[in-house]
Amino acid sequence: MAQGSSYMSAAYRYHEGFLEKRGPKDKDFVKLWTVLRQSTLYFYTHKVTNSNRDSTPVDTADLDLDIQPQIEKDKTCFKFFVKCNRSSKYKFRATSSEDRDTWIVKIYAVTMGRVPEHISLLPGQIQDVNEIIAAEKQRRDVVQFAHPSTPGTGRRVTPNVPPSERPSVLYNDPYFFYPPHLRKLMNTKGPSWFFNKLSRDHAEQILNKNTQVGDLLIRESETHPGEFSLSVRQDSQGRIVVRHYRFRRQGDAYKMHIDDEV
Questions:
Q1: Alpha helix stretches (DSSP H) within the chain
Q2: Whole-model pTM?
Q3: Strand pairing category for 216-220 and 88-93
Q4: Distance (Å, rounded) from C-alpha 31 to C-alpha 20?
């Protein structure tokens, strides 16, 4: 399996590279920069780098879950296909068999939630796939936690949150830690790990009761207006504790005092 330009990130970007794509509406294969992010494929006319991450994709395709990608019978052309957008068939042509297998393994991990047995992998590659499986499970657990299904119907319940308190960006936010029922306590214009006017005790409750969505938060200091505190859940000699550290203001800057637990 090729190394490619795959990397893990908080934004759940699992793999990317050039693929020739032929979707249901395409007359022929088109070479596009393809990004596997969460359970969606994003297609761009050019390579996406750190300097142009805000580029708009020309097309997207949501992977059908519980359906594994398939290799075309003619293995010499490095083709494979996946089901997207509710059973629509998308065909892809890779640059090599290794490139093809890399895509198949990563997509398989997302759609099937396990390591494929039909492709031989090295221990490091298996670890990489297991990280994708774990990340997707965590992401979907959070989505399910925020939007639970009505028993017996499979339909998700929309939380009763006023429109003014609903974030404009949630699961696509690379800084996303916390579900909607906690977002109302946050600064909705800033990153999701920053809380306004949150007490020390409440910070400990949030960190201890929401272990699946984050280990830290930053909040305004109760005792020192204009300064901030970092609350972190840590393992201290086998015991889980929450510690608080202050950001002291020094002129126009802030300095965190590691030894200054508050």
A1: 97-112, 123-146, 180-183, 200-209
A2: 0.55
A3: unpaired
A4: 4
